[in-house]
């Protein structure tokens, strides 16, 4: 086999994508490298595991668990000694956190978890975008706040442990993020931003939520995530959604533009897993705005 072809095939793990196949032109032949979600398991075997995320939450089948407690949020309202930077990593918009720790505990979690970053998954149209589904229904967007257990020295140490990470979703200060899109329009763009309260991105109701055990929704898909999906969504306007859809690209500046929209993994099989719920079953979602579903991931 041609050495260049071997190299391209070996390097395809760096090219995982959401949009199916990556076509590479090599001399005369056309080499098709399988890179979409249904092929992730080729380079990342755990992506073919039995506790994968996201999933569909069937509200008729969730089990009310009265032992699940409320969350304890520490530092979520702090803007002093907390640093934020925003980046386009070619797959999503990610806001990284550093400085004074922002932590999460309670909620049935086995310990304290430190916030590391938050990011978004959204659709090119409002009938899709979220990774998790509720009764087979998509939301236009899902926001994840990622935390890792303070028992581990770093996020990378926690990723492959059984109970190491955490994620969440929500949006009142969305313009503080969107206003920087011109600076991060392409892959690997990044810039420091003014710190704002992480609490402002949380839903009004943090008491009622779903809980299940799953995985990262991107390669390497480690099955080490405790997922919390808050039942109360947040709101975002159609105009704000369109900024996500049109201003952000998954390619570098010197490449043809590809929209970063539709950056969500299809739902995975439950494989016997049980979905738990804390709170009542009387939640009503708003209809005047696009709802953003919030999921919290703990590792």
What is the topology?
Elements: H1 3-10, E1 21-25, E2 30-34, H2 40-43, E3 56-57, E4 63-64, E5 71-74, E6 82-88, E7 93-99, E8 103-106, E9 113-122, E10 133-134, E11 141-149, H3 155-159, E12 165-167, H4 175-178, E13 190-193, E14 209-214, E15 225-236, H5 238-247, E16 276-278, E17 290-298
Structural commentary:
- Strands 4, 5, 6, 7, 8, 9, 11, 12, 13, 14, 15, 16 and 17 form a 13-stranded mixed β-sheet that branches.
- This protein has five helices and 17 strands.
- It starts with a helix and ends with a strand.
- The chain folds into two domains: 1-43, no CATH class; 48-279 and 289-298, Alpha carbonic anhydrase (Carbonic Anhydrase II).
- The longest helix has 10 residues, at 238-247.
- With 299 residues, the chain is mostly beta strands.
User: What number of structural domains do the residues give?
Assistant: 2
The whole-number mean of residue pLDDT values reads 81
Amount of helix: 10-25%
Determine the N-to-C terminus distance. Answer: 41 Å
Largest sheet descriptor: 13 strands, mixed
Low-pLDDT windows of residues: 1-13, 156-170, 282-295
**CATH fold field value of the largest domain:** Carbonic Anhydrase II
Q: Given this structure, which CATH class of the largest domain is correct?
A: Alpha Beta
What structural class do the secondary elements suggest?
mainly beta
User: Helix and strand succession?
Assistant: HEEHEEEEEEEEEHEHEEEHEE
Discrete helix count: 5
CATH architecture of the largest domain: Roll
Our estimate of the beta-strand percent is 25-35%
Rg over CA atoms, rounded to whole Å, is 19 Å
List how many beta strands DSSP finds.
17
Q: Superfamily at the CATH H level of the largest domain?
A: Alpha carbonic anhydrase
Shape: globular
